[in-house]
Design a protein that fits this description.
12 strands, about 240 residues, alpha+beta, 8-stranded mixed sheet
Length: about 240
């Protein structure tokens, strides 16, 4: 990824008024770019200065942003405003969720699935105290991926994996795989059970699960110790909302 931090520095009140007139639209358009992961501009205590934090999926996304900006109303009007930016390459890291992440996890999950059901599920699990593990992939405070483990009622220690969410601009780049691997490693004494694509999850050791469940079928898969063939299992109550 490409991270950009720095300042816009206006020389006088006229440049400040130019920034005030154009930056709201520029911010909206930048955030709408498919490769934009974060675009924050805040006016400093010194009203002639704006603090800027940007994050892009890759160098191509950053180049596309620069090209669009140059030709935009903001780009044409702000040529005299000083830019003091630092550009760096950035990598996400995995960590447990924090309270400050809750809204970002919800928004990420909606973006990843194109609907609210899975995001509402995470919120319901959290409210019920049923998030046994909630990990995020983040960079500079921007949540790029999320995975949840929740208790399963079974005759052996078991947790349900769902949902797994990755920002659309960051999919197929290993973030989901890193989250699944980390979740399994964090609970080595539990079976992990999920409903998902066998072609994707087989690489992590998941196999079709011979278990009694409303979700029984080719997409019910499990990995880990102690799985009792034919045993009945029940996911956390919040899953009932998925139908």
């Amino acid at each position: 990824m490409i991270a950009l931090t720095g300042r816009l520095i206006c020389a006088d009140a006229a440049q400040m008024m130019t920034a005030l007139a154009h930056l709201p639209d520029h911010t909206t358009l930048s955030r709408a770019e498919p490769g934009n992961l974060r675009f924050d501009l805040t006016q400093d205590e010194d009203p002639l200065i704006w603090q800027l934090t940007e994050l892009f999926a890759d160098a191509d996304a950053f180049a596309a942003h620069q090209a669009r900006s140059r030709d935009s109303a903001w780009g044409q009007a702000s040529t005299e405003i000083k830019r003091d930016f630092t550009k760096t390459e950035a990598m996400p890291h995995l960590r447990p969720e924090s309270t400050a992440d809750h809204a970002a996890i919800h928004a990420l999950t909606v973006a990843a699935f194109g609907q609210t059901d899975e995001a509402d599920l995470v919120d319901a699990l959290r409210r019920a105290g049923d998030l046994d593990l909630s990990l995020v992939a983040s960079q500079g405070g921007t949540v790029l991926g999320h995975i949840a483990l929740s208790p399963i009622d079974a005759p052996f220690p078991a947790l349900g994996l769902a949902p797994l969410s990755v920002h659309p601009a960051m999919q197929h780049r290993g973030i989901g795989a890193a989250l699944v691997t980390a979740a399994i490693a964090a609970r080595p004494d539990h079976a992990i059970i999920l409903l998902g694509d066998p072609a994707y999850y087989a690489r992590f050791g998941f196999q079709p699960a011979d278990l009694q469940s409303p979700y029984a079928g080719p997409y019910l898969q499990a990995t880990g110790p102690g799985i009792t063939k034919g045993a009945g299992i029940t996911f956390a109550p919040a899953f009932a909302s998925l139908g």
